[in-house]
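sry for the spam today, last one i promise. struct tokens for design, 256 residues
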């Protein structure tokens, strides 16, 4: 049921969102080009192309199935499958004509520049906060003992891929002792320096998650020395383990 809902959600976005619709048109155009090229290419080239197309489809299906099992978010799965599709399509066009290959590279580059993958919009049990609101909630002392805050930006591909992890965690773990908040650094870039987040360069620090206890930072992910080791992909299991959310939930249930 959940997979069917995700499929319908993606189909609606494919029609209404420029990012998905432009990719659909680009991939669909290959079938038009392919049917036209069949009248021009030699028999040997046509047979080679058909053989490579079968191999590309099988490889694509295997990779898509692998990503479907490994990826936690629908956005991450779609981003990866579109990337694989682009690679295979460009490889197939090399068999027909390198000018066609260059054309598709330009098309996909234009889509990358002009259209972004839509972010996950639902909040779950989390709250969108301004930096001033967050500071007030942390310093007043009459709200939750713990605040887990996600610092994100819509222009970060990492934030878009992991967009639904935080809201879904908030539904499971929110209670009177633990609240979840979201601060958009795209809207409030000055907050990045205040909380020690570097949004520049490769965007390796976005999203950043910080756990506050009574207005004091007790943990964050990624750590300050995140450049020393590669940052693993954001997953719900990773955040639960890093911030010990199961322990915090048990402490609340046991009244500690």
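last one done:
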């Amino acid at each position: 049921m959940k997979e069917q809902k995700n499929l319908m959600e993606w189909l609606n976005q494919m029609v209404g969102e420029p990012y998905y619709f432009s990719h659909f048109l680009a991939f669909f155009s290959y079938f038009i080009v392919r049917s036209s090229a069949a009248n021009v290419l030699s028999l040997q080239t046509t047979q080679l192309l058909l053989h490579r197309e079968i191999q590309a489809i099988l490889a694509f299906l295997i990779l898509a199935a692998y990503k479907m099992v490994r990826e936690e978010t629908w956005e991450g799965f779609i981003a990866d499958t579109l990337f694989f599709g682009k690679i295979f399509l460009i490889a197939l066009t090399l068999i027909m004509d390198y000018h066609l290959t260059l054309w598709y590279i330009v098309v996909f580059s234009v889509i990358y520049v002009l259209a972004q993958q839509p972010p996950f919009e639902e909040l779950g049990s989390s709250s969108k906060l301004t930096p001033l609101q967050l500071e007030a909630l942390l310093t007043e002392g009459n709200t939750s003992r713990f605040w887990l805050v996600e610092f994100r930006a819509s222009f970060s591909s990492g934030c878009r891929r992991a967009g639904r992890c935080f809201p879904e965690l908030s539904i499971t773990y929110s209670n009177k002792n633990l609240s979840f908040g979201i601060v958009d650094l795209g809207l409030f870039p000055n907050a990045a320096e205040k909380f020690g987040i570097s949004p520049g360069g490769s965007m390796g620090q976005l999203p950043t998650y910080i756990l506050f206890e009574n207005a004091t930072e007790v943990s964050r992910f990624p750590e300050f020395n995140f450049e020393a080791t590669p940052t693993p992909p954001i997953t719900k299991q990773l955040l639960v383990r890093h911030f010990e959310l199961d322990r915090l939930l048990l402490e609340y249930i046991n009244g500690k």
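Residues 43-70 form the longest helix (28 residues). ok im logging off now
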